[in-house]
Amino acid sequence: MQVVLGLGIFAATLIGIFARPARLSEAHAALLGALAMLLTGIVSPETAAAALYHEWNVYLFFLGLVVTTALAERAGVFTMLARAAAIWANGSSRRLYLMLFLIGALVTAFLSNDATALLLTPVVATLVIQLRLSPVPYLFATTFIADTASFLLPVSNPINVLLLGERIDLPTFFRFLLAPALFAILANYIIFAWWFRQDLRMVYDLARLPVLDSRRQQTARLTLSGLAVLALVEVTAAWYHLPLGPVAVLGACALALLAWRIGQLDWKSLVRGISWSLFGFLTGMVIVVRGLTELGLTERFGTWLLALGTGSTLRAILVTAFGTALGANLINNVPMALVMRAALETSAPATLPQEALRYAALLGADLGPNVTTVGSLATILWVLLLRRYGITVSVRQYILLGFLLVPLLLAAGLLAIWLQL
C-alpha cells in the first residue's frame, strides 16, 4: 500500500510541477510532495534531515551560482557581450549567430546553463529585435547551447555537482567529457546554421545598436574580469578535488565586494533578483526521491534498467544514458538525476565500471532535456520568457530539432566514454 501511495505522491508532484494548477509554482509543488512523504510516514523527519544535509555542497553551489549570475546581470555583462558580438559581426547575421553561439558556450561553461537560458535569452531577444532580425534562430541557440555546453566543466551545470558528488576529479571529468562536449558544441552549431540558413542571410544596420553608457561599460568589464578569476579558481578547486560549493559562495562574496567597492551594489535589488524558489524546488525533490528510495523503488528501477544492458559494458552505458535522457524529458532532469544517482548507488553491479555509468547518466541528464521544452526548468522558463516578447516557440519544431540533434550527440559522447575504459 505504501508503494502505491509513494508512487502516487511522486506522480502528483510531477503533475503539479508541469501543469501548475491554480498557478502553483514548481517549488510549491515539490515542497507539497515532500510534505506528503513526511505526513504519510514514508520518510521520517530524521531521514529527511539527513538527506538534505547530504546535499550541503549542492546547496552552497546553487547559492554561489545564483548570486554570481545576479551580480553579472546587474553589472551589464551579458548586454556588453551581446553588443560586442553585434559590432564584431559588422552587419552579418551569420557571423553574429556564430558569436552568440560562442558567448552562450562560454557563459554556460563558467556560469552554468541556467545563466545562459534565463539571463542571456532576454539580452539576445532585445538585441535581435532592435536589429530587426528573425529572432527564432538566435533564441533557439540560447537554450540548446545551454544544455549542449553544460558538461564542459563541473560548474557548467548544477546537475554535474548533484550527480558526481562533493569532490569531482577534474582530470577524470575531462577524460570522459571534454571531447564529447567540444564535438557537441560544433555539431550543434553546424546543424542549426544549416537548418536556419535562410534566416541567417539577413544583414543589419549597426546604427540601430543603442549607445552603452561608459560607466556601465567599465562596471561590466570589471565584473567580467572578476568572473574570469572566479572561473580559474573553480577549475583549480576541481583539479585539487575540493568541494565546489564553498568555492562558489566565496567567489560570489568576492564579486559582491567588488560591486560594493565600485558603488554598484544594491542589496535589495540583488536579493530580489535571486531565484530563491530553486532551493525550495531542490529541497522538495530531494525528499520526494528519498521517499522512493525508502520504498526500494529506485533500487528496483536501477536493477531493471541495468538488466537491459546486461551482456556488455557498452550496452550498459548506452542504456544508462538513453534511459536518463528519456526520463529527463518525461519527469524533468533534476528528479531524474536524483533517481539515477540513487539507482546507481544501490543497483549497479560491481562487474560494471561505476565511474563510466555515472558519467553516462550525467551525459543523459545534461543533453537529454534538449528533446522537449519540459525537460528542464531552465527550458520551461525560457519558453515563458519568450512570451514576454510576443514570441511563440513551435513545440513541433523544437522537438524535431531535438530528435535531429540529441541522439547523435548522445551516441557520439557515449562512444567516447566507452573508448576511455
Structure description:
The protein is mostly helical. The chain has one domain. 77% of the residues lie in helices and 0% in strands. The longest helix has 26 residues, at 170-195.
Q: Could you write a compact summary of the structure shown?
A:
With about 425 residues, the chain is an all-alpha fold.
Shape: globular
Number of helices: 20
Element string (H = helix, E = strand): HHHHHHHHHHHHHHHHHHHH
Mean pLDDT, to the nearest integer, reads 87
Outline the low-pLDDT stretches: none
How many β-strand stretches? Answer: 0
Portion in strands: under 5%
Structural class, from secondary structure content? mainly alpha
Radius of gyration: 21 Å
Task: Estimate the helix proportion, in percent.
Answer: over 70%
Largest sheet entry: none
| Total number of domains | 1
Distance N terminus to C terminus? 43 Å
SSE blueprint:
Blueprint: H1 2-19, H2 26-39, H3 45-54, H4 56-74, H5 77-89, H6 93-111, H7 113-130, H8 135-148, H9 158-164, H10 170-195, H11 214-239, H12 244-261, H13 267-273, H14 277-294, H15 297-308, H16 313-331, H17 333-347, H18 354-367, H19 377-388, H20 395-419
Helix pairs in contact: 1-2, 1-14, 2-14, 3-14, 4-12, 5-6, 5-7, 6-7, 6-8, 7-8, 7-19, 8-10, 9-17, 9-18, 10-20, 11-12, 14-17, 15-16, 15-17, 16-17, 16-18, 16-20, 17-18, 18-20
Throw out a few tags for this protein.
globular, 421 residues, 77% helix
